[in-house]
Design brief:
With 289 residues, chain A is mostly helical. Chain A is built from 11 helices and 2 strands, in the order ααααββααααααα. Chain A has helices at 2-29, 36-53, 58-87, 94-113, 138-160, 162-172, 174-179, 184-206, 217-231, 236-256, 264-278; strands at residues 127-130, 134-137. Chain A has a two-stranded antiparallel ribbon with strand order 1-2. Classes of the chains: A mainly alpha (289), B mainly alpha (324).
């Protein structure tokens, strides 16, 4: 059981980081970023290229992922989402754009990095063993703690920096924020870049453990959607809780339901539908957030 | 005047799909196009369903689930009970409609992206159910489903047995196009009826509509079940052509595509989803020769189209109207 909880916490930390980026973009621009999973994959491949091909240290790879994805996110917001949101009658039209970007990133990843599964060597060797109650490789522990540290930095940034305050104001009420002198365009761009950066960083972290391949984008997006549905869309605490809950459910489900075949996700989905029927806005979400 | 032009354009359209297209294919001998066009016709029926849920202001990314269910219902009835395909078609649709009432009652209370995400999850649920349930025979799927048999009423053969035909491709094409024409006629009728006006009121302001006395809960479920009916018959029709069904026959990519068809064609136009399906499916097919750049070009075109015409291709017609 201790092992299951440890696995759940480790998975949850990764998931929470992915969900944070998605929920940030959603709260600022009301855009459901279908390309989030692809951004995660792209981040993984950038780290792979820097670490395995250029043989630079892992930290450099992680930084490269963050920078590349932040730039991608900023460009996508500036040149694609902004004009479409401005010209479209219904804001859902951005979904087609987001899906188009998802396909586009898939195509770029396929052409640049190929379709093979890629991974980088372990950053730390060895196995943590606590009386055979919890057995976990050291690199997983390091990655888990890195993820938690990043979540903490993100929360501090959102709470205490000027940029973070501006973005929270925008998420609460766009018109009021504009009246208070917040530059909506500028902070939308920064927010999108930050969201994309988080996706890229998780990709970079996980490439050391699970590796990365082209097909991981779509399923990652769906998982991220589920997390922000559990926690409530557009709420930072909700994304974190949602990530940990999903990680825990997966970890417990894979252990408990292992005997009855591959139905963990079926059970999770069914639970989610029942949960949303009772509480449509998620755990922390505002009604019709 | 308006009515005349409507009858005229409908006539041209029917003449086009029933006479001109088969003639063109016969002269150019591109018989593979029949399969493409049949697929477009069937997929556009499912997209029409998605469009109807857009019409009540809900983003539906779960149509793949109903197509899959409809396909399985039809496949199981044909293989297990030897029922004629033509009877399974409405049964598949009705089953999906019933199912969608059960699912829709709780989830239609959701709005915006919440509804969109739940329906996306629904597609995954359908796929996983198809894998897990004993009756669907899991990942192996159901294969070698017989071709549609003859449909006779009082001894008169209305539709001949497809396996006895020299050219079943053409027969399938006519089947799909007829289904499409009927589906869009129904859709057009719904939109231009009292029901359509009520749906529009839901799209604009649900609280206001319900305060005036519109039974919003009932309307939502009704529109959603009609939408799912379309999804079901489209799935059943598809299974009849491919003669096989797997849990992966309709997955979340297909659900997303159904939604994209509606966006691309234009959400404000009944014919939008049909045009969108045609463009997306044909665009993808035409780019096949570009090899590994296929996805890159396709997605670039999609993004450019979105930048240029964010309200769908049919919004070009609006612009012309404005200039007059």
């Amino acid at each position: 059981m201790e092992q299951v909880i440890a696995n759940g916490l480790y998975l949850g930390a990764q998931y929470a980081l992915i969900a944070l980026g998605l929920t940030l973009i959603f709260s600022l621009m009301n855009v459901l970023n279908f390309a989030h999973g692809q951004m995660y994959v792209l981040g993984g491949f950038v780290t792979y290229t820097v670490v395995a091909q250029f043989e630079l240290p892992f930290v450099v790879g992680l930084a490269a992922s963050a920078v590349v994805l932040a730039i991608t996110g900023a460009l996508v917001e500036r040149f694609l989402f902004r004009p479409v949101i401005k010209n479209s009658h219904r804001e859902e039209s951005t979904m087609l754009l987001a899906a188009g970007i998802a396909f586009f990133l898939d195509a770029v990843i396929l052409l640049v990095f190929g379709e093979k599964q890629r991974g980088v060597p372990k950053i730390i060797d060895g196995l943590f063993n606590w009386d055979f109650l919890i057995v976990m490789p050291y690199d997983r522990i390091v990655i888990g703690f890195l993820a938690i540290a990043l979540i903490a930095i993100f929360i501090l940034f959102m709470q205490h920096s000027k940029t973070g305050r501006a973005m929270r104001a925008l998420a609460q009420d766009k018109i009021a924020a504009r009246l208070m002198g917040v530059d909506v365009d500028r902070y939308s761009m920064i927010g999108f870049a930050l969201g994309a950066m988080l996706a890229g960083v998780v990709g970079g972290l996980l490439v050391t453990i699970t590796g990365i391949n082209l097909g991981m984008g779509g399923p990652t997006s769906i998982k991220a959607f589920m997390m922000i549905m559990i926690g409530g869309a557009g709420v930072i605490s909700g994304a974190i809780i949602g990530g940990f809950i999903l990680g825990m459910m997966e970890s417990v489900g894979l252990t408990v339901l292992a005997s009855s075949g591959d139905i963990t996700y079926l059970v999770i989905f069914a639970t989610l539908m029942v949960f949303l029927a009772i509480r449509p806005q998620g755990l922390m979400g505002k009604p019709w957030g | 005047m308006q009515k005349n032009s409507l009858i005229f354009s409908t006539g041209v359209f029917l003449l086009g799909v029933y006479v001109a297209v088969p003639l063109a294919i016969a002269t150019s001998e591109r018989f593979d196009l029949y399969y493409t066009l049949t697929a477009v016709a069937l997929l556009s029926i499912a997209s029409a369903g998605v469009w109807l849920t857009f019409y009540i202001g809900r983003i539906n990314i779960g149509q793949g689930a109903y197509s899959l269910v409809g396909g399985y219902v039809s496949a199981l009835l044909v293989t297990q009970t030897n029922m004629s395909f033509w009877w399974t078609l409405p049964i598949a649709g009705a089953f999906c409609a019933l199912l969608s009432v059960l699912i829709g009652l709780p989830i239609l209370r959701l709005r915006g992206v919440y509804f969109a995400m739940v329906t996306l999850v629904l597609t995954e649920v359908a796929r996983l159910c198809a894998l897990a349930l004993p009756i669907t025979s899991g990942a192996k799927g159901i294969t070698s489903i017989p071709l549609p048999s003859a449909l006779k009423i009082f001894g008169i053969t209305l539709i001949p047995d497809f396996s006895s035909l020299a050219n079943p491709k053409l027969a399938f094409y006519f089947m799909a196009v007829t289904m499409m024409v009927v589906a869009y006629a129904v859709l057009w009728r719904i939109v231009h009826s009292r029901l359509g006006h009520l749906c529009r009121s839901l799209q604009q302001n649900e609280e206001l509509a319900s305060s005036i006395g519109v039974n919003t809960a009932w309307l939502r479920v009704l529109a959603y079940s009609i939408s799912s009916f379309f999804g079901g018959i489209a799935g059943a029709g598809f299974i009849a052509i491919s003669q096989s069904i797997y849990p992966s026959s309709f997955q979340s990519t297909d659900s997303v595509n159904f939604m994209l068809n509606c966006f691309l064609g234009g959400l404000g136009y009944v014919m939008g989803p049909m045009l969108g399906t045609l463009l997306l499916y044909f665009g993808w097919d035409l780019l096949f020769s570009t090899g590994r750049f296929q996805l890159l070009i396709y997605s670039t075109l999609m993004i450019l189209l979105m930048l240029w015409l964010p309200n769908g291709v049919l919004s070009l017609m609006d612009r012309k109207g404005d200039r007059k």
